[in-house]
Amino acid sequence: MSFSLGDFEADSQIMLLANQWNCPVLSNDCDFYIYDVTGGFIMSDSVDYNPKSFNEESSGKMYKFLECRIYVSKNFIDLFPWIE
């Protein structure tokens, strides 16, 4: 019995779960740029792991977050309206 690297790829299953849970995928695998992950794709190299804070003046609540770049294929596709 022989196996290829493709036998162990879980990209499509990860995409399906992310779409079911409506969340982005965080990975260093650039294959996710081509998948239609509705919640988007975050390349883990783009995450700034130094927490930031945001104070919402209207409620007085403070939120902490990590800055990152999120890629959404629909946003990219929308740049080319002539393509269906």
Task: Provide an overview of this structure.
This protein has 84 residues and is an alpha+beta fold. 19% of the residues lie in helices and 26% in strands. The chain has helices spanning 11-21, 73-77; strands at residues 25-27, 41-43, 48-55, 62-67, 70-71. It has a three-stranded mixed β-sheet with strand order 1-2-5. A two-stranded antiparallel ribbon has the order 3-4. It is globular. The termini are far apart.
Give the structure's gist in a few sentences:
By secondary structure, the chain is α+β, with helices and mostly antiparallel strands.
Taken in chain order, the helices and strands follow as HEEEEEH
Measured as a percent range, the helix fraction is: 10-25%
Strand content: 25-35%
Unreliable stretches (pLDDT < 50, length at least 5) are none
C-alpha Rg (nearest Å)? 17 Å
Cα-to-Cα separation, first versus last residue: 42 Å
**Rough shape?**
globular
How many beta strands in the DSSP annotation?
5
Name the average pLDDT: 87
Helix/strand class: alpha+beta
Biggest β-sheet, characterized? 3 strands, mixed
Instruction: State the helix count.
Output: 2
Strand arrangement in the largest pleated sheet: 1-2-5
Family: Belongs to the asteroid family.
Organism: Octopus vulgaris
Protein name: Protein asteroid homolog 1-like
